[in-house]
Amino acid sequence: MTLLLTEADYDELCQSSSGSPLSSCSSEDDYEASRWLPMSLGRGRTRCLELSPGVWLDLIDKEFAQPWALRVPEHDHLVQFTIMLSGVVDYDEVYPTLGEGVGYLSGSGLSHGYVARYGRSRHIRGINIHLRPDVVESFLTGQSSTLRQSLLKTNDWKTAWFPPVTPGMRIVAQQMLHCPFYGAARRLYLQAKVFELLAVQIDALQADQGEKAPTLALKPSTVDGIYQARAILTAQLENPPSVTELAQQVGLCDRTLRRGFRDRFGTTIIGYLTQQRMVKAEQLLQQGDYTVAEVANKVGYTHLGHFAAAFRKQFGVSPKECLAGKSVFGSF
């Protein structure tokens, strides 16, 4: 039977485990603290950072010992954005499952109560961003009232979206978890990444509301070919076709495929291939079943130096550091 806790129950559980670093809230800097998971529920922590007034970031890395659930009552809600990099969180009725490629974006306002269920996935990793409404509003000057009204509410139920987590979003989230800087540089870097992700979400909302500049006018058959090309790249990371070969396979000329690919996916064909390779490499390294050389080969790199450079550029750490488990668990 799943253990169901209220927020008061959870706080009491933390206090009852006092004396253990796994259940305390420890301060690491003037802008960062750690909230450790009670030992009876598992291990790991959420690193809570106040990057600037009204901008908060949680870096989540937890491993559960048993299934459990948290009942959250109706409450006031900030603007929020969540990306799960591994594992899932299930919800009763109010929300769909987060993870498995599904993110969470919420405007400010009133939130219904819900039950969050943990433990179906033993290990969860991800990021959670909270923004005060006035911080977001400062960026929406000159935008349509429709965008502001849907994203920023006060005495009304908030609006929530569940956007797909793209490879680019995963890479940014990974970079945040593996930030290569310290002190003030780290704070600046993470804040820049927060607003990078916010920009992606605002752009998507504008597109949904018809406020984004129109994309290329492409024939349906051309669009089908572009999506087919992406599927081919994703399935053949180890030995992908050249751009010319790819264009021939989907029945398009090189120029049309290149322009259409960038227009639809916001990156070049080579850029997308590199993103996908790095995401796959990170997943394999985290599993710990392969050497760095084996992972490099599995994602199509024959030169270890080139692989290491591409990996560090994406995530801020080397493949060897990732294989060694450089994450919040490294502090146990």
Describe this structure in words.
This protein has 332 residues and is of the alpha+beta class. The chain has 2 domains: 3-208, Jelly Rolls; 220-331, Homeodomain-like (Arc Repressor Mutant, subunit A), CATH 1.10.10. The chain is built from 12 helices and 14 strands. The protein has helices spanning 7-16, 133-137, 145-151, 167-177, 183-208, 220-235, 243-250, 254-265, 269-287, 292-298, 304-315, 319-323; strands at 3-6, 25-29, 32-36, 42-52, 55-64, 68-72, 75-77, 79-86, 90-91, 104-106, 109-111, 114-118, 123-131, 160-161. The strands form 3 sheets. Strands 2-3-4-5-13-8-10-14 form an 8-stranded antiparallel β-sheet. Helix 4 runs antiparallel to helix 5 (183-208), helix 4 (167-177) crosses helix 9 (269-287) and helix 6 (220-235) packs across helix 7 (243-250). The longest helix is centred in the middle third of the chain and has 26 residues, at 183-208. The two termini are 29 Å apart.
What is the element layout, followed by pairings?
Blueprint lengths: L2 E4 H10 L8 E5 L2 E5 L5 E11 L2 E10 L3 E5 L2 E3 L1 E8 L3 E2 L12 E3 L2 E3 L2 E5 L4 E9 L1 H5 L7 H7 L8 E2 L5 H11 L5 H26 L11 H16 L7 H8 L3 H12 L3 H19 L4 H7 L5 H12 L3 H5 L9
Helix pairs in contact: 4-5, 4-9, 6-7, 6-8
